[in-house]
Every structure is written in C-alpha cells, then in structure tokens.
C-alpha cells in the first residue's frame, strides 16, 4: 500500500507539474521550462527526451519493438505529458479570455512567478565564479533584447508551421525563453492557438512534427552542455529568466499596431510603463505578484520533487534509468 501511495503521489505531482508547464507555455513571455526547472525535473526531462528520440528510435528501426518500449521512461513521461496536454486543450480559450480581459492581473502573477523562480534557480549554482557571472549577465542582456523584438508576419503554409514548431519547441524547454513568444515573433501564435481551439488536426500535426524534430536535436545539445558545464548552464538559464521579465511587465503602453493576415488590428510595439494611477487594480496586481512569489518560495521549501533537487547530473539520471529498466 505504501508503494502504491508513493507512486500515486508521484504521478499526481508530475501531472500537476505538466499542467503548470502547459499553462506557462500558453502565455507569451513565460516558459514551461521555468516550471520544469523550478520543480526539479528539468534534467530528467532533457534526458528522457534524448532517450526517446535517440535510443528508443534506434531500437524501433532495428525492429526491436519490445526493447524499444522498455527503454521509454513511461512512469515519468505519461503523467507529465497528460498534465501538459490537459492544460493546453482545456485552458487555451480561458487564457485567451483572461489575457484579453484582465491582462494586468495575468502578467502580474507571472511576473512574480518568473522573478522569484530566477532567484531559486540562481541558488542552484554551486559556486559562482567569474565565468558564471559573465554568462549570467550576457544571457540576461540577450534575453532582454530578444523579448523586445518586433513580431513579423510569416507565410501561412505547412512548411512555415513545421519550421515554427522546430524553433519554438527549443524555447519551450529553455527556462526564461518563452516558446509562445517565439511563435508570436514568427507571427504564428494566434494561428496555432486557433488551430488548438478549432481542432485543426492537419496544422497541429505538422506543427507537432516540427516540434519533434527540433526537440530531438536540441535535447542532445542541452544534455551535452549540462553534463560538462552544469554551473555555467544554470547561470545562463537564470540569466534568460531574468531578462525575460521585460516581456511580462504588467503595465504597458501601446506604441504602434499592425494589421495581421486576417485583417485585424493587433499590437505591434508596446512600451513598459508605470501605472498612471495607484488604484485598487494596482493593489490586486501587486497582491497577485506577491502571491506568485510566495507560491514559488513554498514550492522550493517543500521540495515537491525532492529526489530531483540536489544538483543531480545527467549521468546519474542515466544510471537511475538503466536500473529502473532492470526492475521492469
């Protein structure tokens, strides 16, 4: 019974983590990778993706289907993936409504979430040396510039959706770099969101194929970097997170607009400003930002995935995974 209870709690925890990642990935400016890193599953996620797109795929091509199935870390990926997909399909309309109706409140909550998460992630660098500090600053500046870029309009073709998926998925698994914002820059965010709400299977399938190719390649890069330059990697990711707060500052002033491919006027350039008047909406926004900070702080204190929050290296994940395969 204890083993069952432990597995149930772990599955619920992974489901909620995946759900939170899905919510974050729906918001331009917030990264699901931030949630994964904060909850302590980031490096295992990268290894699992690498395993499925590498070792598992090779076994399938060799005709070893049974071995291929055994190599997939289902206990980790299934609850995480179900949670993520549940958030995407269940909340796409809700988040669109909230962003249109209560943008300041939504951005305030995520501003507090990302800012507090940055501090938590920074603490995971074992010893800050000069290179780590430089990497952090350069990454923060780079992210700050990136999120200030002006969106472009790209062709509404299947190839464009494929390429957008390949690029955006890389950002979605990087803490601080929002895959949704990359889609926004490429002029594909609203189109993908519409495809989700309208159940446009073809567009979503092509986009998913692009995501699969992009994540298969990028997960190998991340795995290699984490194994050899762990502290620098964490410093860079923390820098990305800090620089990205420029995008999610709650109060903005519209500078210019553009007409999208559907003939609708949408914001093109927005400038961050201070609230013009200190009213109850500002108080609520500050409260929501503070609530997000508190939740992040409690999450870190509770160690909801304690077994993954002790600077475990990717090699150790591989060892644990191999041992789990022997037990299956």
Topology (SSEs and partners):
Elements: H1 2-26, H2 32-38, H3 42-61, H4 65-71, H5 74-101, H6 103-122, H7 130-146, H8 158-172, H9 179-185, H10 189-197, H11 201-228, H12 230-244, E1 252-259, E2 265-272, H13 280-302, H14 314-327
Antiparallel strand pairs: 1-2
Strand-residue fraction? under 5%
Q: State the oligomer.
A: single chain
- Give the uncertain stretches in residue-range form: 304-321, 323-328
H/E element order: HHHHHHHHHHHHEEHH
Q: How is the biggest beta sheet arranged?
A: 2 strands, antiparallel
Average pLDDT works out at 80
Shape: globular
How many helical elements?
14
What is the total number of structural domains?
1
Report the strand count: 2
Our measurement of the CA-to-CA distance between the termini, rounded to an integer number of angstroms, reads 19 Å
Radius of gyration: 20 Å
Instruction: Name the structural class.
Output: mainly alpha
Output the strand order for the largest sheet. Answer: 1-2
Percentage of residues in helical conformation: over 70%
